[in-house]
Specification:
Elements lengths: L2 H14 L5 E7 L6 H11 L38 H11 L4 E11 L9 E10 L3 E2 L3 E14 L2 E15 L21 H8 L4 E5 L5 E2 L14 E5 L3 E10 L11 E8 L4 E7 L11 E10 L2 E8 L3
Parallel strand pairs: 12-14
Antiparallel strand pairs: 1-3, 2-6, 3-5, 4-5, 5-6, 7-8, 7-9, 10-11, 10-13, 11-12, 13-14
């Protein structure tokens, strides 16, 4: 065994000592389960399930973690939080693992959460992995388990896993690759024909008049296979968006914003936002259609922020 191996084993032993240490004990959510937060969540997710409204409403199960979060202001002292997580992060930071990314979560639901329920929870550092090397860099996966209670009754379990890592050295960029080619078939050929003419075409069911996007062979409202098209005005607003940092794709230069744009006609489409930096894109921002030539053979519909 080399000196490097011994040092790595000793460091891992220090990390493993955190396994089983509580990160929070009998901590309390900042707010009871409440209808306004349920409504905001459902609107953001586009979830119109009837179980989440009315006098017998329940919270969407996937909101389990939301009731335990401290928000931008965090949790105040004396609310059951321990220093274990901060100590573990400081140890990893000192080893050069200064970056962090959430990797996945697992949830188990034991009973519905209803408006008025008081949320308490215990959290424990469940596991710290040996050193792993990923495309992002080299570091350790840390898994935290949170046991959530509603009015003192077990309500669910939430496991959250992050990678705390030292960023990999970036390799010199090769010659810029071409954007991926869209898949054009008999169901969407008309859409791409319209793009070549600088027209954004939306399908319209001739049976019930419902507009639909993306293009489909039949109406998902009345099942009619008959349709024609209407041309979009090009006006829209940002309904939702994400900023892509990782993974890198050939021909794309992260970070960049990918938005779900709601057109004035009522349908939504995914595209890029131009005219403003990626960190200035906002929900509700008005945008206008334009066509962007990305290479000699490909032109795409994108949306420019008004005034950008």
């Amino acid at each position: 065994m080399t000196d490097g191996d011994r040092e790595e084993d000793a460091f891992l032993a220090r990390l493993k000592a955190f396994e089983g240490r509580p990160a929070a004990t009998a901590a309390q959510g900042k707010d009871p389960v409440n209808q306004p937060m349920i409504r905001h969540w459902c609107e953001a997710m586009g979830d119109t399930g009837p179980a989440y409204t009315g006098p017998d409403a329940i919270a969407p199960p996937t909101m389990l973690q939301a009731w335990t979060m401290g928000g931008l202001s965090g949790h105040t002292a004396g609310t059951g939080r321990s220093t274990a997580y901060d100590e573990l992060f400081a140890l990893l930071d000192g080893a050069g693992c200064t970056s962090v990314v959430a990797t996945d979560c697992e949830q188990e639901y034991l009973r519905p959460l209803r408006p008025g329920d008081t949320i308490t929870f215990d959290a424990v550092i469940e596991s710290v992995s040996p050193r792993k090397t990923t495309k992002l860099g080299t570091g350790h996966f840390v898994t935290t388990r949170m046991d959530v209670r509603a009015n003192g009754e077990p309500a669910g379990t939430h496991r959250f896993r992050i990678l705390k890592y030292a960023p990999a050295q970036r390799k010199p960029r090769a010659a810029k690759a071409l954007r991926p080619r869209p898949v054009v078939n008999r169901d969407n050929q008309g859409f791409w024909d319209g793009v070549r003419e600088h027209r954004l075409l939306i399908q319209r069911c001739t049976g019930c008049g419902t507009l639909r996007f993306p293009w489909l062979p039949g109406c998902n409202h009345c099942a009619s296979p008959d349709w024609d098209t209407v041309e979009a005005s090009g006006a829209g607003t940002v309904f939702s968006y994400v900023v892509m940092h990782h993974p890198p794709f050939p021909a794309f230069d992260p970070p960049y914003a990918v938005a779900l744009v709601e057109l004035a006609e009522g349908v939504r489409m995914i595209s890029n936002i131009t005219g403003v930096p990626y960190d200035k894109v906002r929900i509700g921002m008005p945008v206008q259609l334009e066509f962007l030539r990305v290479d000699d053979d490909l032109e795409l519909p994108v949306f420019r922020a008004d005034g950008g």
